[in-house]
Amino acid sequence: MIIFNADLDNTLIYSKKHDIGRDKRCVEIYQDEEFCFMTSKSLGLLERINNKILFVPTTTRSVEQYNRISFGNIVPKYALVCNGGVLIEDGNEDDGWYRESLKLIASCEEELEKARKIMQEDIHRSFEVRFIKKLFIFTKSDKPEIMIMKLKENIDSDKLDIYRHGSKVYAVPKALSKGNAVLRLKNRLGADSLICAGDSYFDESMLMAAELSFAPEFMKIEKDNHVSVPADRIFSDEILSYIVENYL
């Protein structure tokens, strides 16, 4: 069995702010508006892949945010959400997986609380501080670089990773990496290999865990069997075309 673990935002799906051309399909409705899209080419390729390879969306999105997405005829049997801390199987959250995730990060409770307080007290914070499923912490800041500096000065870097994505700032236990999640699922299902695709440093650990990986050129991933996609290409079209051409 081959598993295809793919990040979602800016890997397979794109917000309305992102120009992917006119030939596209809406895959997410948010607040009664079309919010995210896939190219028609990518959706067609993904349907072909899904018939032969186990497609597992692997995202930092919450359960609620993931459930807004519809891939048309594709209904993934599994999805890894909350950065892999939650496993969805046949539309339902796997309680055993979630309890195991909480055990994996139990030693990080004190550091997560430190991070929460630093975020809460930051005068540049522009959004509420959210503790997602008691797994990781997220907020937004008008000056995220200042918040990140404070976090890195005060947090045990052996236990937590600090990520920035635009104005968003995350504090995530190292044990809650996407890399750990995809390997946990690989072992559970007895899969032979992983194909992984992602567009940000949230995804780096799962790219390193994969037998074949895809990322944009700017990420500079150094490993065997890695494909770097130039910035002038539509990432989803490129990675899905490669998989169809070489694996189906």
Layout: helices, strands, pairs:
Blueprint: E1 2-6, E2 14-15, E3 24-30, E4 33-39, H1 40-50, E5 54-57, H2 63-67, E6 78-81, E7 86-89, E8 92-93, H3 95-104, H4 109-121, E9 130-132, E10 136-140, H5 144-154, E11 160-165, E12 168-173, H6 178-189, E13 193-197, H7 204-209, E14 212-216, E15 226-229, H8 235-247
Parallel strand pairs: 1-5, 1-13, 13-14, 14-15
Antiparallel strand pairs: 2-4, 3-4, 6-7, 7-8, 9-10, 10-12, 11-12
Unreliable stretches covering 5 or more consecutive residues = none
Order of helices and strands: EEEEHEHEEEHHEEHEEHEHEEH
Q: Outline, from the CA principal axes?
A: globular
Report mean pLDDT, rounded to a whole number: 95
Largest sheet at a glance? 5 strands, parallel
Give the strand content. Answer: 25-35%
Helix content: 25-40%
The total count of strands amounts to 15
> How many separate helices?
8
Structural class: alpha/beta
Please tell me how large the radius of gyration is.
Answer: 18 Å
What's the arrangement of strands in the largest beta sheet?
5-1-13-14-15
Please give the alpha-carbon distance between the first and last residues.
13 Å
